[in-house]
Amino acid sequence: MPQSIFVNLPVSDLARSIPFYRSLGFGLDAQFSDDTAACITVSDTIRFMLLTHERFEGFCTLPRADTSASTAVLIALSRDSRDAVDDLLAAALSTGGKEPKPADDHGWMYQRTVMDPDGNTLEIFWMDAEAASAARKMNSG
């Protein structure tokens, strides 16, 4: 079995959060979902576990971050094109997401930020790896 990533995200309203993540084109794995958690399948190896606050706090050793006042984590998700970044953002904004800042366009990388209804932050980006490598070489030499 390939190594997998499960990103645990606290949500205040599971019934509101599931449609938000489904609108981004992600699946729902009912096998790992119940009334306190929803397993959102991003890819074969990446899943978001949406957990009610109480369930999330059961896993924590420190207090849960207040995402209305601070950033707990930045989750960067790549897309295949600039258009795919924009399409994902449009879907997120149509289901309660917020875009807290304008797009970052570096030519070789295009990035947009969206916050889910609970303030969890996703950085959606497209990058031309060859152009990024060339830019790094120019900046280091």
UniProtKB/TrEMBL annotation:
Domain VOC, by residue range, is 3-127
Q: List, alphabetically, the InterPro entries matched.
A: Glyas_Bleomycin-R_OHBP_Dase, Glyas_Fos-R_dOase_dom, VOC_core
Mind telling me which Pfam families this protein's record contains?
A: Glyoxalase (PF00903)
Protein name (database record): VOC domain-containing protein
Supply the source organism for this entry. Answer: Cereibacter azotoformans
Top-down, what is the taxonomic lineage of the species of origin? Bacteria, Pseudomonadati, Pseudomonadota, Alphaproteobacteria, Rhodobacterales
